[in-house]
Specification:
mainly beta, single chain, about 575 residues, 5-stranded antiparallel beta sheet, 33 strands
Length: about 575
C-alpha cells in the first residue's frame, strides 16, 4: 500500500489526480489525499482542500484501521452498564443520545432535519466508524427526538464502473425531507487503494420516515449523483435540500468537484490542484433520477485569479470553492446556494451565493459576506497546516450554513465562522450572521457590516448552524471552546450552545448552553479520535404550525472509557 502511495503525485487541495504517465487509476491511491499535500499561493494563502470528514477518514484507512494509532483498549467497548436498547442511556433527558451503538468508536459531523408533514419525525446523520473504516450513519425519531433508532445506509454493494470494486468508505452525511414527507440521505464515497470517488443520494419512503433507505445496486443506479475514477476528480462536501411545499418531490444536492492535473502543478502546489467548483443536481420526480450535474460557481467580477493554475480557465472564474449549502424557497421552489470562495487577492476571503431558478437558469453570483481567514490558528495533523481550534487541537473550517424564514421567504440568513475579531493566529473565532431581506440579492455582511457573535475573551466559536422557527426566531448554534492558557496540546474544553434573535429584533440573546456540560474534554486523549470533531454541526426548526422549537445536534465527549473520550452525537429540543 505504501509503495503505491509513493507513486501518487498530487494532493494539495482535495483533488484526486494522477498525470497520464503514472500508474493506472486501478493501482494508485487517491493522490489528492496524500500526506503533506496542502498547497498555497505565492503570498502564502492556503488553497482549498478536501474536507475533514473525508480526509481524516482516508488517513485512518491508510493506517489500516480507524483506530490503528490507538492502544488496544480502543477496540474494546466501554465497560458501561446496558439499561436501554442500543445504549441510549449514555445520554440524558435533556441531551438525547442520537447514535445508538454501544461501541467506543467515533460518531461526529452531524446534520438534522424535520419532516414538513410530521413534526414528530426527526432524522439525523453522522460520520460513523463503528464497523471499522468510516461509514456514514443515519438516525430517526418518531417522537420529536425523545428516542432514536439508527442504522448504516446500503451503499456498499455498488461497484465503481471503472474499478469494478465496492467503495471502502464514506463521509459527509447529509439528510433532508421533501414536501411529500420522504426522507433523503446522502454521502460521498471513496476507495482506499484506487481513485474511485462518488456521491450517492437515496430516499426512504413516506411511511418509513427515514428508518431505512433505498439500496444502491451493484451496477448502474439512479441513486448515483456522480462518480469517477480518472485520478483527476474528487467529489466532496455535499448538502441536500428538499422542496418543502406540500406534495413536492424534488430534492437538490450541491457539492464540490475537486480537479487536479500535472499541468496545474507549481512549486507551491504539490498536489497539482487546478480548481474546486460547486456543482448541483436535482432529483426529478418524473424521470426518477438525478439530473446531469451543472456548475453553480460560474464567473463574476467578485472573483480573481481563476486562471492561476488552469491557464484555460477564465480569470474571473469563481473556482477556489468549498463547503456549499442549498436552501429551497418555500414560496416558489427555487434554490439559493451559499459557499466559501478564495478567489480574492488577499487573505480576506468571501462567502458567495447564487439562486437556481425552477427552470434551471441561474441568477448572478452575489457576495453574501466577508470571510476573514487572516487570524486563523493552524495545527498539523500529519497533512500540513490546517485551520483548527487550537485549544482542542481539532480541525475546523469556514463553510457557511443558510436558512430561509418560513414567515417571509425573502428573508435569508447565512452564518459562518471567521476571525475578524481575533488576534493574529489566536484562533479565537467568532460567528458572522449575514441577512438578506430581498431573496438573496443583497446581504448585510457584503461589506463587512453583518452581525458578529463573539464568545467570552479567549473563547473560540466554531461550526455554526442556523434555523428560523415558525414564529420567525433566528437560532444560531455552535461549538464553544473555552479560553485556554495551558500548554498541553488539546488540553482545552468545550460545550455546545446557541444565541437567538426574535422576529423583528436587531440583537441576539446572550449565550445559552445546549449541551448538559460546557467543559467536555478535547478528543485529543483518544488516539483514534484526536484532531477531529466533525466539519459541521446542525440545528433545524420544528415544522409544527406556530412552533418556536428547534432541534440542535452536535458531538461531544461526555462518555469515556479506557480508550479516552468518545465522540457521540446528542440532540436537544428547546425553545430558543
Amino acid at each position: 500500500m505504501k509503495a503505491r502511495r509513493a507513486l501518487a503525485v498530487v494532493a494539495l487541495v482535495g483533488t484526486l489526480s494522477l498525470s497520464a504517465g503514472f500508474v493506472s487509476s486501478a493501482q494508485a491511491v487517491n493522490p489528492s489525499l496524500d500526506v503533506k499535500a496542502h498547497g498555497h499561493l505565492d503570498n502564502g494563502k492556503a488553497l482549498p482542500h478536501v474536507s475533514g470528514g473525508t480526509e481524516v477518514t482516508f488517513d485512518e484507512e491508510r493506517a489500516l484501521g480507524a483506530d490503528a494509532q490507538s492502544a488496544a483498549s480502543s477496540d474494546l467497548p466501554p465497560d458501561a452498564a446496558v439499561s436501554a436498547l442500543g445504549c441510549a442511556n449514555r445520554g440524558s433527558p435533556t441531551n438525547r443520545r442520537v447514535n445508538q451503538d454501544c461501541t467506543a468508536r467515533r460518531q461526529a459531523e452531524e446534520q438534522v432535519a424535520v419532516n414538513p408533514l410530521d413534526p414528530t419525525n426527526v432524522i439525523a446523520g453522522q460520520n460513523d466508524s463503528r464497523i471499522g473504516f468510516n461509514h456514514c450513519g443515519f438516525d430517526y425519531s418518531l417522537d420529536q427526538g425523545a428516542t432514536f433508532g439508527d442504522g448504516l445506509p446500503p451503499f456498499f454493494q455498488h461497484l465503481n464502473p471503472g474499478t469494478g470494486h465496492t467503495y471502502d468508505a464514506a463521509s459527509d452525511p447529509n439528510v433532508t425531507f421533501n414536501g411529500a414527507g420522504v426522507a433523503w440521505y446522502s454521502c460521498v464515497v471513496f476507495d482506499v487503494n484506487s481513485n474511485a470517488t462518488g456521491l450517492l443520494a437515496v430516499p426512504s419512503t413516506a411511511a418509513l420516515k427515514g428508518s431505512a433507505y433505498a439500496n444502491v445496486g451493484a451496477g448502474a443506479s439512479k441513486f448515483v449523483v456522480a462518480e469517477a475514477n480518472d485520478g483527476h476528480t474528487f467529489y466532496d462536501k455535499q448538502f441536500m435540500a428538499g422542496d418543502p411545499r406540500t406534495g413536492q418531490k424534488s430534492v437538490y444536492v450541491t457539492f464540490t468537484v475537486f480537479n487536479s492535473d500535472q499541468k496545474c502543478s507549481t512549486g507551491n502546489n504539490p498536489g497539482a490542484y487546478c480548481s474546486s467548483e460547486i456543482f448541483y443536481s436535482k432529483w426529478d420526480a418524473t424521470s426518477q433520477r438525478w439530473s446531469p450535474i451543472a456548475n453553480v460557481s460560474g464567473s463574476s467580477p467578485l472573483c480573481t485569479g481563476g486562471n492561476t493554475f488552469d491557464k484555460k480557465a477564465a480569470a474571473d472564474a469563481c473556482n477556489f470553492d468549498q463547503g456549499s449549502m442549498p436552501v429551497v424557497d418555500p414560496s416558489d421552489g427555487s434554490v439559493f446556494v451559499v459557499w466559501s470562495n478564495g478567489n480574492t487577492p488577499t487573505a480576506l476571503n468571501q462567502q458567495l451565493g447564487r439562486r437556481i431558478n425552477t427552470d434551471g437558469t441561474m441568477g448572478p453570483v452575489v457576495k453574501v459576506g466577508q470571510d476573514d481567514e487572516s487570524h486563523v490558528a493552524l495545527c498539523d495533523f500529519g497533512r500540513g497546516p490546517e485551520e483548527c481550534v487550537k485549544s482542542l487541537n481539532v480541525r475546523t473550517n469556514d463553510y457557511p450554513a443558510v436558512a430561509v424564514d418560513p414567515t417571509n421567504p425573502n428573508h435569508l440568513v447565512a452564518v459562518w465562522q471567521d476571525g475578524r475579531h481575533a488576534a493574529d493566529a489566536s484562533g479565537t473565532y467568532n460567528v458572522v450572521v449575514s441577512d438578506s431581506t430581498n431573496g438573496g440579492r443583497t446581504w448585510t455582511d457584503a461589506a463587512g457590516g453583518g452581525t458578529v457573535l463573539d464568545g467570552v475573551t479567549g473563547a473560540a466559536l466554531s461550526q455554526p448552524s442556523v434555523a428560523i422557527t415558525r414564529t420567525g426566531t433566528t437560532a444560531v448554534s455552535f461549538y464553544n471552546a473555552n479560553p485556554y492558557s495551558g500548554t498541553a496540546v488539546g488540553g482545552g474544553t468545550f460545550g455546545y450552545g446557541l444565541r437567538a434573535r426574535a422576529a423583528g429584533a436587531t440583537s441576539f440573546s446572550a449565550y445559552r448552553s445546549v449541551s448538559d456540560g460546557q467543559a467536555y474534554p478535547s478528543p485529543q486523549a483518544n488516539a483514534s479520535q484526536r484532531g477531529f470533531l466533525g466539519d459541521y454541526s446542525s440545528i433545524a426548526a420544528s415544522t409544527a404550525p406556530g412552533s418556536n422549537l428547534v432541534h440542535a445536534v452536535w458531538a461531544d465527549t461526555r462518555n469515556s472509557g479506557a480508550a479516552g473520550p468518545d465522540e457521540d452525537v446528542f440532540l436537544a429540543t428547546i425553545t430558543p
